[in-house]
User: What shape does this take?
Amino acid sequence: MLENEEKIVEKAQNGDKSALAMIVNEYQDRIYHLGLSMLKQEQDAEDMLQETFMTLVEKIHQFKGNSSIYTWLYRIATNIALKKLKSKPRKYPHIPIDEPDFKKIHEEETKEEMEFDFEKVNNYKFRKILNDFLDELPPKYKTVFILRDLHDLSTRETANILNLTESNTKVRLFRARNYLKEKLEDLQKEELMV
Amino acid sequence: MSKKNKMFEKVCEYLGCDLDSEPCKELQHHLNECPQCEVFIDEIKNTVKLYKEADECEKTPKSVSKKLFATLDLDKPDQNSESKSEE
Assistant: This one.
């Protein structure tokens, strides 16, 4: 967060270009990172970055200060990314994300705990698999997972950005996390069978 | 505080419950004797950790940033200070 952010935003709202530049400079990396997480392609992330800050410049006078400027920027960026995702043909068909099967979880008394090898994240192929699992999620779940778990935004901020209730945000996050966990579990089983 | 109690408090916080409320007490009782729940919570936690470690937080490439500032017709703040120091 910028030092004296409120004042800088006020200046930017009054047309101060150097104040605007400070905001862009401060948040460009986070927005570019969000673009890559959501859209995967560098060109798409770049387009999202440009559109987000063009909207900032055009509409900063509309910013009322009810949230922080970065929450506002995240909302603009997320909406742009979701529109782009909608307009693209899906790599994977929509998968239904249902309630986790709690009964199954409790019945699996003999189930061994999954092993997590964190060294594997250095392997390009494994990272690609993780990305593919994330891409299988419908955007409304994927977005919550990215904002909460990869960008460390709070439940309140995420709910605010996506125009959701906090409890709805929590439900979506839990379903996304559980889906990814199950995919990793299946992967581990497959690897053991090879 | 035991690992289970810590976990229980976190679950209650997550659920937004009062720690002394009936559902929380029931949950604590359950977690105290349910290894499957403990495994489940650990696996979810590790899944998130794995994704977090795999996530490459890339900085905006210089060329992309340059293009962005040019499109917005703005000067990069460090460029400003450079020009000021040159004056």
In short: Chain B is about 75% helix and 0% strand. Residues 37 and 61 of chain B are 44 Å apart (CA to CA).
